[in-house]
Amino acid sequence: MTLLALFSSFSAIQAETSATGAISGIILDDATDAALDFVNVVLYKKNTTVPVKGLSTDKDGTFQFANIPSGQYRIEATYVGYVTWSTLCNVANGQHVKLGSIMMKTNSKELGAAEVTGIRSTMKFDIDKRIFSVDQSIAAAGASASDILKDIPSVQVDQEGTVTLRNSSDVTVWINGKPSGLTSDNQGQVLEQLPAESIDRVEVVTNPSSKYSAEGTAGIINIILKKDRKAGYFGSLRAGVSNPDGYNFGGNFNYNSPKIDFYANIGRRVNTNHGTGSGSRQTFTASGDTSYMNSSTNRNFNMNGLFFRSGIDYHFTDKQTLSLSGFGMDGHRNFESNIDYQYLNASQALSRTVQ
């Protein structure tokens, strides 16, 4: 009797520990009913965050947790691009819980728009020309067109405003693709008075084709002026000083509408430069006499002028526009250079003076 009681008690314990169940299901796309593979499915004890088991769905979207002790569980399924799915279930007395088809919904939440900004290159190479952008240059503030041209490779501007291209003064300067009244006589004056703020870009054509009708020149420098098209009224004022004895000021006004665009620019520049120099020469003769010559140089450069430009556009259609524009200038330039010579004899007494 004693042995039989012990055997019955051991059999009851063995039956209780082997009472394990299972949980299974299949995960599908809610919109297309297509099976989702490699979905992460995790089994938790109810009210806990420590995983009991974890697995991924098969190619046909199925999953199964086996050998699950009796108890209450929470199942959670996660997949990239889908809303997380979870449910509670109870496994009792070796039960196989079949969840059936589990429909996962796509996550339709829109991400915020990303804006990519950048700064365009200051130099661009085209088929027959090089294009230099001026509108983003900090150096353009308070400068003139001549100052901008000095910073362009292969272009030189001397003190008198003469423009050369690849060491040749036989260069044609255009504004907005046209001669615009520029000649060899007034070219330097116009460029000195043209504000750099009104320039959008500079095109340098070193090998002009026949379409430019520029035979016999070393190249073409085409200055493209800005033409803002913002809506309504707007304008700006500027002023600056330079050392020594120079200043500039100007302003611009723009009006834009669906049919009419009007723009006007005006600027004044005054610039004065002074320079001095000195030299000394001693001459020996065969007879033993010695003479001396001293020289002193004074140079003065003065420039002042007024530049104005205006234009009006009438838009018949999006592709048909009638434009009238013009510009002018008034001012003068003056360059003086004086050299004084003093001749002295052997005793360094002043013999004569020449200016």
> What is the percent of helical residues?
under 10%
SS-based structural class?
Answer: mainly beta
Largest sheet: 6 strands, antiparallel
Mean pLDDT: 78
> Which descriptor suits the 3D outline?
elongated
Strand content: over 45%
- Total helix count? 3
By DSSP, the count of extended strands is 20
| Gap between N and C termini | 149 Å
Q: What is the rounded Rg?
A: 44 Å
What is the N-to-C succession of helices and strands? HEEEEEEEEEHEEEHEEEEEEEE
Secondary-structure blueprint:
Blueprint: H1 2-17, E1 20-29, E2 40-45, E3 51-56, E4 62-69, E5 71-78, E6 85-91, E7 96-104, E8 123-125, E9 130-133, H2 145-150, E10 155-157, E11 163-165, E12 171-175, H3 187-193, E13 199-205, E14 219-225, E15 232-242, E16 246-256, E17 260-284, E18 290-315, E19 321-344, E20 350-354
Parallel strand pairs: 1-7, 12-14
Antiparallel strand pairs: 1-4, 2-3, 2-5, 5-6, 8-9, 9-13, 10-11, 13-14, 15-16, 16-17, 17-18, 18-19, 19-20
Word description of this protein:
This protein has 355 residues and is mainly beta. 8% of the residues lie in helices and 53% in strands. Strand 17 and strand 18 (290-315) form a beta hairpin. It starts with a helix and ends with a strand.
Key attributes of the depicted protein:
355 residues, 3 helices
Compact summary:
8% of the residues lie in helices and 53% in strands. It has three helices and 20 strands. The termini are far apart.
